[in-house]
Design goal:
The chain is mainly alpha-helical. A 3-stranded mixed β-sheet has the order 1-3-2. β2 and β3 form a beta hairpin. The radius of gyration is 18 Å and the shape is globular.
Amino acid sequence: MALQNYVNRLGRWISLQSSRPNLPWTFAVLDDSGYNAFAAPGGYVFVTRGLVDQVQDESELAGILAHEIVHVTSKHHLQAMRKNARAGALTQLVGTQLGNNLGGAVSAQLLGLGRDLYARGLDQGDEFEADRAGVALAAAAGLDPYGLLGALQQLRTATPDNPAFTLALATHPPAQARLDQLEQAMGN
């Protein structure tokens, strides 16, 4: 309970500095040993216990929370879902025109849209944007803007066979590419 309260206080403070401070922000720690965090439309941000246990300090956790807050404020998940839904609707239209019975399969595809989105992650451009804007958001909240870089350093050294990092490595661009993008944005 103390950890949940702490993550909620930190996340809410950062979210107050965002472009959407009035969302009903909810931050939760999931009882999972993996190193991961994700957001959902409407102001929901989740971090795993494994991530919280692995971060070196508050600035790293703040950087991760800020990154996820930016996904929400930029509506990255909603845009990705709309894009995938349009592709599904096109598939259904083509199937209807061909006279195939694809309607049921396409409906099932659309129902699994959100699940699939989280399984494969957002596109790299959204991740890089969330990194850059997340660093600025952490700084606006009065926290060390280099915290996210510290968290990315951990991801960079993680091996793909380490089960704690499997999902994070599969759903995000390579950590070195993210660090390179941040170095360009932040300078030396």
